[in-house]
Amino acid sequence: MTVASPETSDTTSSREPIRVMIVDDSAVVRGIIGNWFAGDPGFAVVASHFNGRRAVDDVTNSKPDVIILDLEMPEMGGLDALPLILERKPGTAVIVASTLSQRGAEASISALNLGAADYVPKPSAATNKINSAEFRADLLQKVRELGLKARRRIERTAAPRPTPAATVGVAATAPAPAPVAKLAPQPIAKPRMPEALRRPSTAPVRAIVIGSSTGGPQALSKVFTALGPAMAGVPVLVTQHMPPTFTTILAEHLSRSAGRDAREGTDGEIVVPGRIYVAPGARHMLITRSGQDVVIRLSDAPPVNYCKPAVDPLFQSAAAVYGANLLGVVLTGMGTDGAKGGQAIVAAGGTMIAQDEESSVVWGMPGAMAATGVCSGILPIDEIGPKLVAFLGGRR
């Protein structure tokens, strides 16, 4: 689970407030969450509804940038409402909220596969844990990041196309931006991109490590659909920022995508080729050598990059074990987790790939990885799986 970093301000950079719709059958939850956004001028709560049917009927009128959608509601729950919302207002960022239960985890993963941008594990309103500082920081950060990306998407689509005269010569004047999406600089500066990609390792790939966060379950599913048939000779280890129970369900979904055995890693387990290992929620997953074997070690150490599980510990430990035979991937997600670990992989002789900005739900983690200058590829999500297959086949 990701928590907002201390350097991220609670005031959004958008000149126009991010428009938020809250959909939850609990009036208490709607009131508490609504007050959080009301206290920040960077947000505007444009609608609040007690079931999915009301949200579907109102979405074209209220025009939210981001919807916080409860999954269990009377008359129409979130899973039924989600595809109708996205059909009526494409491009809306939907964050689903569900309980920390197996049923809630399964519903959340299903919602992500239906097009939700992200999820939040919802604490209990009955025990007042809904007021927790961690939940508040996590939710506001996600709404801010996803809202800003939605605005940038609107800006690209709504901005007038340049006339032929405006495209001639380097001193041509660019068209004025569409007024609907006037954006000041983002809270975190956009990563400076390297001028060239690094040459990949020529050593055969013996293992793959992948890190992801916001938008990760959908991205991982696409990668493993392509990778599954080709990964018989290598293990793949994944750290996705998720709480307990959710990582169990994620492993089951990845197993179906890949057609391979996927499971949460357990302490002391021997790593074998052809299997997918997912870091369990609330534990860091590392690997080490034990004689001729590579084994998993789970750690209860403090969060790294405000995350637990975190990507950096996995990447750094895998770099020490596999060296030049390691291939690492950083997919969509907030923050910078994975960048230091990716640098460790390349320093040990391995290869790094990052997801590109356009296909990322949030280009935080892969953007930070790309900005290090050590990547051998910065690719759309649909090209990452085939690229991994090519590496496994010895094609660079």
Give the class-level CATH name of the largest domain.
Alpha Beta
Strand neighbour order, sheet with most strands: 8-9-7-6-12-13-14
CATH architecture of the largest domain: 3-Layer(aba) Sandwich
The ordered string of helix (H) and strand (E) elements is EHEHEHEHEHEHEHEEEEHEHEHEH
Question: What is the general shape?
Answer: globular
Proportion of helical residues:
25-40%
CATH superfamily of the largest domain: Methylesterase CheB, C-terminal domain
| Uncertain segments | 1-14, 161-188
Major sheet size, sense and barrel closure: 7 strands, parallel
Give the N-to-C terminal Cα separation: 34 Å
**CATH fold annotation of the largest domain:** Rossmann fold
Number of strands: 14
- How many separate helices? 11
| Rg for CA atoms | 21 Å
Mean pLDDT score = 87
**Count of all domains:** 2
Q: What structural class do helix, strand and pairing data support?
A: alpha/beta
Strand content: 15-25%
Helix and strand layout, with pairings?
Elements: E1 18-23, H1 27-38, E2 43-49, H2 52-62, E3 66-70, H3 78-88, E4 93-98, H4 102-113, E5 118-121, H5 133-158, E6 207-212, H6 216-227, E7 236-240, H7 246-258, E8 262-264, E9 276-278, E10 284-290, E11 293-299, H8 311-322, E12 326-330, H9 339-347, E13 351-355, H10 365-371, E14 377-379, H11 381-392
Parallel strand pairs: 1-2, 1-3, 3-4, 4-5, 6-7, 6-12, 7-9, 8-9, 12-13, 13-14
Antiparallel strand pairs: 10-11
Helix pairs in contact: 2-3, 4-7, 6-7, 6-11, 8-9, 9-10
Family: Belongs to the CheB family.
GO molecular function: phosphorelay response regulator activity; protein-glutamate methylesterase activity; protein-glutamine glutaminase activity
Protein name: Protein-glutamate methylesterase/protein-glutamine glutaminase
